[in-house]
Specification:
12 strands; about 50% helix; 3 domains; Beta-Lactamase; 10 helices; alpha+beta; Heat Shock Protein 90; binds adenosine-5'-diphosphate; five-stranded antiparallel beta sheet; Helix Hairpins; five-stranded mixed beta sheet
């Protein structure tokens, strides 16, 4: 009996011991699994955080996050570039890190309303920029949340807007002038001048001249717009310059004769350019046309060309007229710029001829420049690619 009891007790103790060992093993395994899970989760959230940072740093917009006390919590690479921040601004109060008038007011407005608020700012340093800033304060019950600010650099957009506004204003002005002249002369004719044959003829000639001016203006505007929008695809092929220059002379011979201007060429025979013949002819035509309009009566207008030894040819249109002041040398290629407004209007100029030349040359990968001194004449030089010689 006693022996049986001892055996039972020993059996129980052994069973318990084995169970305890098993339990400990299972516990250790469970703990190891938990550790693995935690490590995996930690790695996952670190990866996610890295992904978020990479995403924010790849944005062109600047991003700034403020904590509930209004201190900088996070910035992305674009924002640090925009403000040329050398030190990490984390932990600094907003106004200390970013001195932009009105930014605190924008943050306050976003916090108060809980809605998206935006404002425009002019940044003076490190360089002049126009910024559009969105601020939002996503609300969570019972706590003052973070504020997220997104900075859009709208400088280029504003510049384009200004260019567009100036262009529309210029075009309207250019259209209005001939239209009001045509209207004025028509009314005078209808009011009785029609009965005077001499006056009628004179007025009708003026109307005709201004109608032509309108038509040239619209042609040039359409050409410029097609060139700018890429609608006029270039048909580049080996194009011989000499016959092209002679075609321009043929088209303008009568006009040159009216001012007793001699048209000349100095172009090596067989000089071939890699160009769209029609577009190039239009550019050379505009330059020779200007040289006749603004050049010296009884003077000379010459088309010259020579290879420059670096795969390009320099094509120049030269006159011996009054020339262009150095200060206006770059501006003449801008739309509607005129050195002498009255003279240009009198000659029927649209103010777009040189802008078209510049566009055509640039679309060939070339450059246009002006060498001119007052009273020594003008030399417009186009650098254009030579055609590649085939054996
Ligand atoms: P426009 O239709 O007025 O001639 P352009 O764009 O062709 O317009 O030329 C711009 C301005 O440049 C002209 O108004 C004129 O003042 C000046 N200009 C162009 N070519 C010459 C030239 N060969 N000699 C003197 N001035 C010129």
């Amino acid at each position: 009996m006693e022996t049986a009891l001892i055996t039972l007790t020993l059996g129980l103790a052994l069973g318990l011991g084995l169970w305890a060992v098993q339990l400990r093993r299972e516990l250790a395994e469970a703990r190891a699994q938990l550790d693995r899970c935690c490590a995996e989760q930690e790695e996952q959230s670190e990866n996610q955080l890295e992904q978020h940072h990479a995403l924010l740093d790849s944005m062109t917009e600047g991003v700034l996050v403020l904590n509930r006390d209004g201190h900088v919590e996070m910035t992305n690479a674009s924002l640090r570039r925009l403000f040329s921040l050398e030190e990490d601004p984390r932990g600094r109060p907003l106004m200390e890190a970013f001195t932009l008038d009105g930014l605190s007011a924008l943050v306050a407005a976003a916090r108060e309303s809980g809605e998206l608020r935006n404002a425009e700012f002019g940044l003076a340093e490190p360089e002049s920029r126009q910024l559009h800033v969105n601020a939002i304060c996503p609300r969570r019950a019972g706590e003052t949340p973070q504020t997220i600010l997104v900075f859009h650099d709208v400088t280029r957009l504003k510049e384009l807007e200004n260019t567009r506004r100036d262009f529309v204003a210029n075009v309207s002005h250019e259209l209005r002038t001939p239209i009001s002249l045509i209207k004025g002369f028509t009314e005078t004719l209808l009011d009785g001048a029609l009965d005077d044959p001499k006056k009628s003829r004179e007025f009708l000639q003026t109307i005709d001249k201004h109608a032509d001016r309108l038509s040239y203006l619209i042609d040039d505007l359409l050409t410029l717009s097609r060139l700018e929008s890429g609608q006029l695809a270039l048909n580049r092929q080996p194009t011989e310059l000499q016959p092209l220059a002679l075609r321009v002379h043929d088209d303008l011979r009568a006009k040159a004769a009216k001012r007793s201007i001699r048209l000349e060429t100095d172009i090596p025979e067989g000089l071939m350019l890699d160009a769209d013949g029609d577009r190039l002819q239009q550019a050379v035509f505009n330059l020779v046309d200007n040289a006749i309009k603004y050049g010296q009566p009884e003077g000379h207008v010459r088309i010259e060309a020579q290879p420059n030894g670096r795969g390009m040819a320099e094509v120049a249109v030269v006159d011996d007229g009054p020339g262009i002041p150095t200060t206006a040398a770059d501006k003449v290629f801008e739309r509607f710029f005129r050195v002498d407004k009255a003279r240009s209007r009198e000659t029927g100029g649209t103010g777009l001829g040189l802008a078209i030349v510049k566009h055509i040359v640039q679309s060939h990968g070339g450059r246009v420049r002006l060498e001119s001194e007052p009273s020594t004449g003008s030399r417009f030089i186009l650098s254009l690619p030579l055609a590649v010689k085939t054996a």
